[in-house]
Amino acid sequence: xxxxxxxxxxxxxxxxxxxxxxxxxxxxxxxxxxxxxxxxxxxxxxxxxxxxxxxxxxxxxxxxxxxxxxxxxxxxxxxxxxxxxxxxxxxxxxxxxxxxxxxxxxxxxxxxxxxxxxxxxxxxxxxxxxxxxxxxxxxxxxxxxxxxxxxxxxxxxxxxxxxxxxxxxxxxxxxxxxxxxxxxxxxxxxxxxxxxxxxxxxxxxxxxxxxxxxxxxxxxxxxxxxxxxxxxxxxxxxxxxxxxxxxxxxxxxxxxxxxxxxxxxxxxxxxxxxxxxxxxxxxxxxxxxxxxxxxxxxxxxxxxxxxxxxxxxxxxxxxxxxxxxxxxxxxxxxxxxxxxxxxxxxxxxxxxxxxxxxxxxxxxxxxxxxxxxxxxxxxxxxxxxxxxxxxxxxxxxxxxxxxxxx
Length: 406
Hints:
This protein is an alpha+beta fold. It has two domains: 3-52 and 272-404, no CATH class; 81-259, no CATH class. Helix content is 56%, strand content 18%. It is built from 13 helices and twelve strands. It has helices at 3-15, 18-57, 85-94, 128-132, 145-149, 159-165, 210-218, 236-250, 266-309, 311-319, 324-361, 369-395, 399-404, and strands at 60-65, 68-70, 73-75, 98-113, 116-125, 137-140, 154-157, 176-179, 182-190, 206-209, 225-230, 261-265. The strands form two sheets. It has a six-stranded mixed β-barrel with strand order 4-5-10-7-9-8. The two termini are 27 Å apart. The model has no long low-confidence stretch (mean pLDDT 85).
């Protein structure tokens, strides 16, 4: 029996039981659509996380005072004053893999402009901070080295602070705001960045010279942190090792003493969030894959019913010369057609569902072409795997017994 006749017989058999055929396909359709949609959401989340971390500075390195035991008492990182301006200067002058450095001191409080006020954070930094955090100036200009040396009372504000202190939409540049009774002249505004992957508003900040915050706000001489950026993301580990050796030398730590500082990089955060995203994607894909298994069992069940219903037809075919391989091919082809048709509808449904999720819920999605190909391949193999046994049973029927079947 040639291929075209097999297809004609298979299509005729499926056409005679349209509703049953569609209900059999439903498990495959739901399984394929679910796998594609879940993987699209998972991949979209993963790419969104990587993009936001990249916007924050994928090669950023953060140095903070670390926990340390002194006199038998474990000191909190907040109480440690181990980072000095000498450390900042040494990193600037003596490192090979560091591209930009900025000291960091911070204070939180109420910013006031006339009758408007807003609670936010004042960050004391240097010019390198903008490069490290991938921040751009929208209007105005950055403070200068002279402003740092003189501890000038100037600042740049983020969009959230600007919208709350200047709700009428006027330009804040040149205006004076107060922080803890200290007047600051706004010399620039920052380009909006929105919320990051952890839900933090990146526009809710005010930047000022670190010397201003140290002397006029906090009255301290030490640093609360140092921000750096490696020459590239690939050189982050070398930069961390270089900084660690330099700080241990500056702090006169012996080989047996633990670090009195802590170094973190964005790679750690990226790795953690990516692994969490991958785990959730895999879990969702496995749950969706169960539908494919259920769909495959449905195909086997229906093919068994079909073989039983058409036992006389099989006997008649065999009696006029049809071989076992022809009967097997016919029923296997029917199972594959059910599976492949369900797969095609499932792919279209999955793509449509993914686009709908993005349109209605604004979730990031990315439809991986490989997930579509893989889902389609799996549903085809499902049809072959679960259709093989019923087809083989049909092929092994005894023609005489089949003709006698009632």
